Automatic annotation (TrEMBL):
SUPFAM superfamilies (alphabetical): CheY-like
An annotated Gene Ontology molecular function: phosphorelay response regulator activity
Protein name per Swiss-Prot or TrEMBL: Stage 0 sporulation protein A homolog
Keyword ATP-binding: no
Matches recorded under Pfam families: LytTR (PF04397), Response_reg (PF00072)
Residue ranges constituting the HTH LytTR-type domain according to the UniProt record: 131-230
Modified residues (4-aspartylphosphate): D57
Location of the Response regulatory domain: 3-120
Keywords: DNA-binding, Phosphoprotein
UniProt cross-references to InterPro entries, sorted A to Z: CheY-like_superfamily, LytR-like, LytTR_DNA-bd_dom, Sig_transdc_resp-reg_receiver
Organism: Schaedlerella arabinosiphila
Length: 237
């Protein structure tokens, strides 16, 4: 399923674009879920990390599309953004938020179909595995490729990613079960590490490619070293 959000403060346009997307789903056979928001603040405050694509109006009253995109990028680096504008000579500023494209209003079905066909093709080629985690500030999409390690933190979990830290209200055993087939190994009662980032082992410390150090317990060291050797061997094939 593809989850699409539409954010525009013109209710008639929300209805119009929703109808076009439903027509596209019917004609293409794609399973599409559509969520609508009438303001940038609504989208940001109720942000759903399962969204794959956002149609985002640039000119909105409370929080314009560019400011909305900036805040979305703080919690989701990968969601696709397509800006909606009434200006034929629109600013290129939106591309610094990795916008897929601009669409000039009013939008017609032929234009939408062309955009959706192109985006879906790229989306399927570039989709990377991820997990959705939650905390008091909302839901976050965390891509496994950029997740270095997980540690216990104040009875919760702290996810260390290439883009910063994310608190997660899940249990370590649950994360270990979910990520065990994705190259993540428990090296300590309080740590789960992505083998991709392991550079070397020094006694009871793991040195990551980022030069960060995390502990490895004596109890788990033998099993961890075997899994690491198997992983490195597979990477050399």
């Amino acid at each position: 399923m593809i989850h699409i959000a539409i954010c525009d403060d013109e209710r008639d346009f929300l209805t119009h674009l929703t109808a076009l997307l439903k027509r596209y789903a019917l004609e293409s056979g794609e399973e599409i879920k559509i969520s609508t928001y009438s303001s940038g603040l609504d989208l940001v405050e109720a942000y759903d990390a399962t969204v794959d694509l956002i149609f985002l109006d640039i000119k909105m009253n409370d929080l314009n599309g560019l400011k909305t995109a900036e805040r979305i990028r703080q919690r989701d680096e990968h969601v696709a953004l397509i800006f909606l504008t009434t200006l034929s000579g629109c600013s290129l500023e939106g591309y610094k938020y990795q916008a897929v494209n601009y669409i000039i209003k009013p939008i017609h079905y032929v234009r939408l179909k062309e955009e959706m066909d192109q985006w879906i093709k790229k989306h399927r080629q570039n989709t990377e595995p991820f997990i959705i985690v939650s905390n008091d500030t909302g839901k976050y999409k965390v891509f496994l490729k950029g997740l270095k390690f997980i540690e216990t933190f104040n009875r919760n979990l702290l996810l260390h990613t290439e883009h910063g830290h994310v608190i997660c209200y899940r249990k370590m055993k649950e994360m270990e079960a979910a990520l065990g087939q994705q190259g993540f190994v428990r090296c300590h009662s309080g740590y789960l590490v992505n083998l991709f980032y392991v550079k070397r082992i020094e006694k009871l410390e793991i040195i990551l490619l980022t030069d960060e150090k995390i502990p490895i317990s004596q109890l788990k060291r033998k099993a961890f070293m075997k899994q690491l050797a198997d992983y490195w061997g597979n990477q050399l094939l």
